Amino acid sequence: MSDAATDVWLVVGLGNPGPSYAGHRHNIGYMVTDELARRMGSGFRAHKSGRADVVEGRLSAPGTPGPRVVLARPRCYMNEVGGPVKALATFYKVPPAQVVAIHDELDIPFDTMRVKLGGGDNGHNGLKSMRSSFGTGDFHRVRVGIGRPPGRQEVADFVLSDYSSTERKVLPFVVDTAADAVECLVSDGLEKTQQRFNS
Question: What EC number(s) does the entry state (predicted)?
Fold first, then answer.
């Protein structure tokens, strides 16, 4: 275990900046970090690096002193997030093993999720950029399922499109559950989180 002084988690919501992308499947990471910021009672503000917006505080169940957490949303497009995330990790002295990437996952059905440590990027440009910048894939991932595109729709078109009207009814629950998983991960560790959320 790391010592308390450096026991900071960097939780990164992957997505694309700007209102035109806000509701896209690819932006589920932004949606989850918005919910976590709400729970922490704070809004995002510009980090001095100029390359990300952050919220600093503690993330925990009411009445318990939770770990220190930096929520981050890079201000660049998905394929360039590695640089800003690495810069934040260096600034806050967070090792890759205490970085959490929240992202959309094609190979998991909508309304399900998986939490894991390490692995490849599975064609996800955000993860690919982070692995390249860190020189390792050994960071945590909260993989929020979006399922595969219907019919012959291109993957790029699918991830850069809004959720269906049916999915939007369930989406708040999905976001809430993913935020719960992040809270559990930073407070209780990977094993307990996987037992509870990788169902």
Answer: 3.1.1.29
The residue type found at 98 is: Q
Q: Is 26 a catalytic residue?
A: yes
The reply, when asked if residue 77 is annotated as ligand binding, is: yes
Neighbouring C-alpha atoms within 13 Å toward the C-beta of 54: 22
Average of per-residue pLDDT across 102-106: 96
| pTM (two decimals) | 0.93
Report yes or no: 66 and 188 within 8 Å, Cβ to Cβ.
Answer: no
**Per-residue pLDDT, 49:** 80
> In this structure, which amino acid lies at residue 193?
T
Please indicate if the annotation marks 92 as binding a ligand.
Answer: no
Domains and CATH numbers, the chain: 4-197 (3.40.50.1470)
Exactly one of 26, 47, 124, 140 is catalytic; name it: 26
SS3 call for 145: strand
Helix, strand counts (H, E) of the chain = 6, 7
127's tokens: 């993860």
Q: Is 79 annotated as a binding residue?
A: yes
Label the pairing between strands 45-46 and 52-58.
antiparallel
